[in-house]
Design brief:
The chain contains 18 helices and 2 strands. The protein is mainly α. A hairpin with a 2-residue loop joins strand 1 and strand 2. The protein is globular, with a radius of gyration of 20 Å.
């Protein structure tokens, strides 16, 4: 992890290079993520699922029928493996897509002076952000495409959005639900008034409902559209209630914090055109969805891995725009504390962390 922290420091230092124009801001963001791109693109035998993905790649290039190599791998991902000449080239492609998506995310949704905070939060949650993108190539590509698709969501351009959705779904089936839901919610109308109450009521109901029942009720839909996940979801139902309530409590706290911020912003949005635009940003809706994902237990885990990036940029903007400094700093500290607890849980996991303790690359091990 020493290399990971070095990459973090380089990306963070890049955010302090002075820029004035949006064009300069874009290139500062892109250049600052070059070390991250190299970190991801040059990896070799690094990550818990790397062996499985490498084996699948070899199988695709040896099989006469690429779709029979592994029934759990989507057809689009199988075709992509067939197209790429080497496994390393596939890693380079996925790394480029991820860092390009990160660059767009920060450039589009984070004010210039606060990009450093977004980078801190991004690197502080590796098991759900950067390391997650490395571990699951399919997940990483689909999540990256989702970040980039927000351009078409905001513009309400259905056809190019549908094309991206189809591509993402052909790489990882879970993308369909997230993409469609976020398109439906991704209007420029802000969350306010009665909508705020509805958000909280629904989250509380989900939190106190039996998560096992919720999981079982989702099985018919999963059997219809994503049959290969039925076994996993049935297993989720058995353990969903064990840790579900505490996770729901975290989600409710985050949700209340975001809605409190939006409520105070609503009072001042009319005074400034910039605040009016900020108030209507889709990132806050997606941040609320991220918070809501906690209340549906393990079923919301996949959705949270797509939406955490919008939670990160929303928290960054809350620090800038929230006129109550005590609330904004307090909420930030709460988020950092939660991120720290998740990080400590990850690094003390004897099964998963062993795959990341030493960075292995084409240049050697570090």
């Amino acid at each position: 992890m020493k290399v990971y922290f070095l990459v973090f420091v380089l990306a963070l230092l890049g955010q302090f290079y002075p820029v004035k124009t949006d064009k300069q801001y874009w290139w500062r963001t892109v250049v600052s993520f070059i070390p991250l791109f190299l970190f991801m693109a040059l990896r070799k035998d690094f990550g818990v699922d790397d062996e499985a993905y490498h084996s699948f790649f070899n199988g695709v290039h040896q099989a006469s029928n690429i779709f029979s190599v592994n029934e759990h791998m989507e057809s689009g991902y199988a075709i992509l493996n067939k197209i790429m000449p080497t496994y390393q080239s596939l890693i380079i492609l996925s790394s480029f897509l991820t860092t390009w998506a990160y660059s767009y995310l920060i450039y589009k949704y984070v004010p210039k002076r606060f990009s450093w905070l977004a980078v801190v939060l991004l690197f502080a949650m590796p098991s759900m952000t950067i390391i997650f993108m490395i571990s699951g190539i399919r997940n990483g590509m689909a999540a990256s495409l989702f970040i980039l698709s927000t351009y078409y969501i905001e513009k309400r351009k259905l056809i190019p959005f549908a094309i991206l959705t189809g591509i993402a779904m052909s790489i990882h089936t879970s993308a369909l639900f997230v993409f469609v839901l976020c398109y439906l919610l991704g209007t420029q109308k802000p969350i306010k008034g009665k909508q705020m109450i509805i958000w909280i009521v629904v989250m509380v109901i989900l939190a106190f409902a039996s998560l096992a029942v919720l999981t079982q009720s989702a099985l018919p839909v999963i059997e219809l559209f994503m049959n290969k996940y039925v076994g996993q979801v049935e297993g989720m139902a058995e353990i969903a209630d064990e840790r579900g309530f505490m996770a729901s409590l975290v989600g409710i706290v985050f949700g209340v914090g975001i809605l409190l911020y939006l409520y105070t912003m609503e009072q001042h949005a009319s005074k400034s055109q910039a605040l009016t635009i900020e108030f209507g940003s889709i990132k806050y809706k997606y941040a609320m969805l991220f918070a809501a994902s906690f209340t549906v237990g393990i079923l919301g885990g996949r959705m949270g891995q797509y939406l955490i990036y919008f939670f990160i940029v929303s928290v960054t903007c809350m620090v800038k725009y929230w006129n109550n400094r005590a609330f904004s700093i307090g909420f930030l500290l709460l988020v950092l504390y939660y991120f720290r607890m998740v990080y400590l849980s990850w690094v003390t996991d004897p099964y998963h962390f062993i795959y990341y303790k030493t960075y292995t690359s084409v240049l050697g091990s570090f």
